[in-house]
Automatic annotation (TrEMBL), chains A, B:
One GO term describing the cellular component: apical plasma membrane
Residue intervals of the AstE/AspA barrel-sandwich hybrid domain: 222-302
Organism: Neogobius melanostomus
Signal peptide positions on this chain: none
Name of the protein: N-acyl-aromatic-L-amino acid amidohydrolase
Matches recorded under InterPro entries: AspA/AstE_fam, Aspartoacylase, AstE_AspA_cat, Aste_AspA_hybrid_dom
Domain of life: Eukaryota
Length: 323, 323
């Protein structure tokens, strides 16, 4: 250990891999189906295998993001605990089922890790999206994938929300993140994106196996992009129609620094609208299809380097630090 | 004229530019809205302006391809003339309205030209899709755009169907074609694709203006890709789920020659499936989002060069050949 402190964390005995939380994000849908099929063929039901979940089968069947409300916004503490109305949308009912299967969120019974598979139309490569910048498990898995897949652009995105307010399926686990890969149009599966996701999941499961087997993982650094704010499209005051698209010089340049004065939008009549913020920030989710309705043209983040400690597994239920 | 025969064709007095025939193909939606807005601002209602149509407002509002049935399959002679049921889908009703506005199809009252704007997730550049390889008007406009926009990959696709069976909105005009531009995810507008469409439409209108003003356009050659057949994805016999995606070596290579034995699909477990046809053909609509449900993974075409004559405008109602 070279004198480095190692944080000993509980083993990851129960891991869930979820696809189709958004039913038109097809890499995850087909990857989870393929994993289910392989397992059936191998007739291998060992306890070390992940729980495989098709999160929103109804939306998946229709190849829609969701049928009534966005399932991946239904997992905040309040949303999960509010009284159920008779006319509750399908996704609200489904979120309770998933919380029962993988949670209950915040309880000792929840699975150890949820990896929720997503696609984006944005040119984001492979991203982890997590609510913590000090979840050493998620960050070590990220570091492992970066090492194993050096040709894939990879970033760690941090949504800085308290656990109660965290709203996505991956927040149900003790650890969790969305594995978000793009660019891929929704409703389409591209071999290269599918294969990247498949490799990413396999390397994650490999890491978990090594971790549970007692391997000590050295510390290091992770570059973390913390969400600062969202920007909406310019819109017509009366119709609320968008009146501009992402500027061609910004399109596909997710994570490249956006400086005050840089081209941001191009109106449909051809004018350039510059970024009028005061701070240089890193954009992501540039021109994501599903966010038009949410009023998000892109998100902006601040980058910083986070030091992560060495980690190893313990059979204890709580973290222990050893030297 | 250098002794070249010129075909004199009736002037194009009434031209329609349609967007949103598929409500989630956004370049056409926003281009038609922008053209409507400019016209309003200029307060310019001269007769030489095109008719502007938002074809499927209900699907556009929901950002869906269609609400009940695919509007762009509702314009065959049979479909337009079959008795209307009380429970007719919205798009069937809408197709009658559009036929009344721009047609009736096949009658002397139909508009002279329909340009219907579409987007595809396939890497197809700018394509004209037409039912004729001897519609000199459409082919001359195509040739004009190719000359004016040399940086844009441009192809002329021919669906070899008799007029009665032609099923798309553009078939309602005396001349007509779909202007299909990609790659762009459905539900997304990308500045570069929008701008290409805007330029394409402007050059088309310029050509029509010159043609109507008496300019003689020299003959030449157009490379025509005639549809031969569609290929479906490999599917699971019982669930009908696809079990493979377009092979990464074929993805985005629309119009590049596909030879027998070339990689065609990659299964979700990683195996390559080759093209087992006997003839080398040119693929297009490779991995188009909307065609998963239609059972089309890609279409195959045969390429040949078509000679087109010089053309000029006449005030007569029918074509005349002059030397």
């Amino acid at each position: 250990m070279d004198g480095q402190e190692a944080v000993c964390l509980p083993k990851l005995s129960r891991v869930a891999v979820c696809g189709g939380t958004h039913g038109n994000e097809l890499s995850g849908v087909y990857l989870v189906k393929e994993m289910m099929k392989s397992r059936k063929e191998e007739d291998n039901e060992s306890g070390s295998q992940p729980v495989l979940v098709l999160s929103n089968p109804r939306a998946t069947k229709k190849c829609l993001r969701y049928t009534e409300v966005d399932l991946n916004r239904c997992f905040s503490r309040d949303a999960l605990n509010s009284p159920l109305l008779d006319i509750a949308p399908y996704e609200v009912l489904r979120s309770r089922e998933l919380d029962a299967l993988l949670g209950p969120k915040g309880s000792p019974y929840s699975v150890d890790l949820v990896c929720d598979l997503h696609n984006t139309t944005s040119n984001m490569g492979l991203c982890f999206i997590a609510y913590s910048d000090s979840d050493w498990i998620s960050m070590h898995i990220f570091k492992h994938l970066k090492r194993c897949m050096p040709d894939i652009p990879m970033r760690y995105i941090h949504f800085d929300l308290p656990q109660d307010e965290s709203y996505s399926l991956d927040s149900v686990g003790k650890h969790g993140f969305a594995m978000e890969i793009g660019p891929q149009p929704h409703g389409v599966v591209r071999s290269n994106i599918y294969t990247t996701m498949k490799c990413g999941v396999q390397h994650m499961l490999d890491w978990i196996h090594l971790f549970n087997s007692g391997r000590v993982f050295e510390g290091g650094f992770v570059d973390v992009f913390t969400l600062v704010k969202h920007l909406d499209y310019p819109r017509d005051c009366s119709t609320l129609d968008i009146i501009a698209a992402i500027h061609p010089q910004l399109q596909d340049r997710d994570f490249c620094l956006l400086n005050p004065g840089d081209p941001l939008f191009q109106t449909f009549s051809g004018e350039t609208m510059p970024y009028n913020g005061t701070e240089s920030l890193h954009p992501f989710f540039i021109n994501e299809c599903a966010y038009y309705e949410k009023g998000i043209a892109l998100s902006l983040s601040r980058l910083r380097r986070v030091k992560i400690p060495a980690v190893c597994a313990t059979s204890e239920q709580h973290a222990v630090i050893v030297t």
